[in-house]
Design goal:
single chain, elongated, 10 helices
Length: about 170
């Protein structure tokens, strides 16, 4: 029954019927479907079918994690980073990486790029990212591009151009 409900919600979503999709995802989530919980959270993140609300998105991502979702570990990192809470973002990206989500390693590398003293961690996480077998091609390309930039010594100049350079450590 839950798979049927989720599939109906997914169909409504794909047809652009976000309000109906949200209603169906919510029913599936209330029945314990962690994928539906993740979708509700992402709809709050994007304001699809509901008002945009980071706090509600985080609430549903956390519920999904409690129900066993690995995807929501990564999504919590994205949400906290979007809210400006870098330490919580780092925490959730580390959890996602530990659960086997290698995309999280790229996000950790980006967080550590903010500080010159973190260069070794950036390289570590980029190499870790590239160990993943299920990466999107754009993720793999971005990790390679950043890593090549480090190897060419252009990290500092790029970060300065982007206005994100600091001497403070993240950890």
């Amino acid at each position: 029954m839950d798979d049927l409900l989720f599939n109906q919600a997914d169909s409504e979503y794909n047809n652009g019927n976000f309000e109906k999709a949200f209603e169906l995802f919510l029913k599936a989530a209330e029945n314990g479907d962690d994928s539906a919980m993740d979708r509700i959270a992402s709809m709050y993140d994007a304001g699809e079918g509901v008002d945009f609300d980071f706090d509600k998105a985080i609430y549903w991502y956390q519920k999904a994690v409690e129900a066993g979702s690995v995807t929501s570990l990564y999504n919590l990192g994205i949400s906290y980073r979007s809210k400006g809470d870098v330490l919580k973002a780092k925490y959730w990206f580390e959890k996602a990486l530990a659960a086997g989500d290698f995309d999280a390693a790229l996000e950790l590398a980006k967080l550590h790029m903010l500080c010159e003293a973190e260069q070794e961690k950036v390289i570590f996480y980029l190499k870790k990212c590239l160990q993943g077998n299920n990466l999107f091609e754009c993720t793999r390309k971005e990790a390679i591009d950043i890593l090549e930039g480090f190897e060419k010594g252009s990290k500092r100049n790029k970060a300065r151009q982007m206005g994100i350079w600091t001497n403070n450590k993240l950890s």
